[in-house]
Design a protein that fits this description.
alpha/beta, Rossmann fold, 7-stranded mixed β-sheet, 7 helices, 12 strands, 25% helix, 24% strand
Length: 298
């Protein structure tokens, strides 16, 4: 069913591979608001060096392929700012929607649409700004995550908040599963905002800078875990971020365990350190975690 979008006629959508880009794009199309163009990244992916972070194993051209199948023009956005401005201006956009685009937009690009550029970010801003917010929320033990639709400014993830939604995260799910839940919530948020806001309601509310926190790409040392965490937090972080070659160093009672897989956990109850073959029961500040670990080198 086609919806009334209050004269917003031209929307450019910018994204990449993965649910956080694909699902909002599909939601726009399903709601009868097909983008006038889809912009995708060209050139080297800046996230490529960060191989420690598990990612969805999808081709980078997923969004491009969907757009072409839908008959929507695809912009291979140039890394030259002046040329990129020309590429986007050709479509005279009212709004540019961004979700998981691979690089920060140069400031001149933000002035191309008449209403503005808006980003879907998978956290409750101003918390967890940056390129890998779902990872850091799992590391912190966040159980209710969220997604924010906000105006884009020169400062990354710092613009006025248009709308937010919360998502409960079940124990044991992966980064990819959590990302899909957040993408589904973000898709609803985006369509509802376009229907509700029309052309005049995009001012939003300012973020509270005193509560802002920025996190970059994780590195190997960010996978270290602690028995001082709750068992639930430790288990969920390991389950969410598990990937080939990922090791979770954990020191318990003077011994270092290089954990590789969380098997189960108990939220409460006293526990003691138990080691049997390649499995260990870790006593945490609350409850315990059973995990596999790498044997000590000979």
């Amino acid at each position: 069913m086609s919806l009334n979008f209050d004269r917003i006629s031209n929307v450019i959508y910018m994204g990449s591979a993965g649910a956080l880009s694909v699902l909002p794009y599909q939601a726009l199309c399903d709601a009868g608001r097909r983008p006038c163009a889809v912009a995708v990244e060209t050139g080297k992916n800046p996230a490529a060096p960060h191989r420690a972070l598990p990612v969805i194993a999808e081709s980078r051209d997923v969004l491009e392929s969907l757009a072409l199948a839908d008959g929507i023009p695809v912009i291979k956005l140039s890394q030259d700012t002046q040329n990129a401005v020309h590429q986007l201006s050709t479509y005279a956009p009212d709004i540019i929607i961004v979700s998981c685009f691979g690089r920060k937009l140069a400031e001149p690009l933000l002035s191309v649409p008449t209403i503005g550029c808006f980003n879907l970010h998978p956290s409750v801003l101003p918390a967890y700004r940056g390129p890998s917010p779902v990872f850091w929320q799992f590391r912190a033990g966040v159980k209710t995550m969220g997604v924010t639709l906000h105006r884009m400014t020169a400062q990354l993830d710092a613009g006025d908040i248009v709308a937010q939604a919360m998502v409960d995260i079940a124990d044991g799910i992966t980064l990819q599963q959590a990302g899909r839940l957040l993408a589904e919530a973000g898709s609803r948020l985006l369509v509802e905002a376009l229907v509700r806001q029309g052309r005049s309601g995009w001012s939003g509310r300012a973020q509270q800078e005193g509560k802002a926190a920025y996190y970059g790409f994780p590195v190997n040392s960010d996978y270290a875990v602690s028995a001082r965490w709750t068992a639930q937090r430790l288990y969920n972080f390991m389950r969410a971020t598990r990937g080939q070659g990922i090791v979770y160093p954990c020191s318990v009672e003077g011994r270092l365990f290089n954990l590789v897989e969380a098997i189960g956990f108990r939220k409460t109850g006293a526990a003691r350190l138990i080691v049997q073959d390649d499995e260990v029961t870790l006593p945490c500040c609350s409850g315990s975690v059973r995990a596999r670990f790498l044997p000590d080198p000979l």
